[in-house]
Amino acid sequence: MKPKHYRLYELKRRAPAALAGVVCDPDRVFRLLRDQPNDALSWFDRMIAIVSTLFKRAGISGWSPTGCVALARGAAVRDAQHSTDGFWTIDIRLSDLTIGDRSAPPDRFLRVEVEPGTAAHEVCARSRILEGARLEVGGELVIDNDPPPFPEIHPDDQFEVF
Fold first, then answer.
1. β-sheet bridge partners, residue 64
2. How many independent structural domains does the chain possess?
3. pTM to 2 decimal places
4. Does some domain include residue 1?
5. Residue 52's domain is classified under what CATH number?
6. Distances (CA, A) of 161 to 4, 8, 20, 131
7. pLDDT tens per residue across span 65-123
């Protein structure tokens, strides 16, 4: 089950040649990991998400593919936040992030964006993700181009809460 609205999936479907040159560079992704968690989404951020996601889908301050698939393990920094675009946002303190056979430096943070229409979203909808919850998520890494740019993982089927 793939989300129909996510720009990367749309690019793959409509213009696969546009992604043909995207080669995974784990070092680039690791350099962009934050040493502090992203700020929590404000009430305003959560309310306008339905509009801001439209811009992201159009490529305006949107998501850029990295060509990388990762497995992340860590603990939720705060309770998961739900926005008007249907996404769940979870920031995690990483205990482990692997891309292929490479591992990220310790004590970094990663944003998890859980899209509607995915198995991961179903998990979030039925079990509240609270601060401190241990997660294991796998999926494609993208760069969120909101300044400053930062990596996000968008899980689909690989999403577990412990």
1. 143
2. 1
3. 0.86
4. no
5. 2.40.50.140
6. 25, 25, 34, 12
7. 999 999 999 999 999 999 999 999 999 999 999 999 999 998 999 999 999 999 999 99
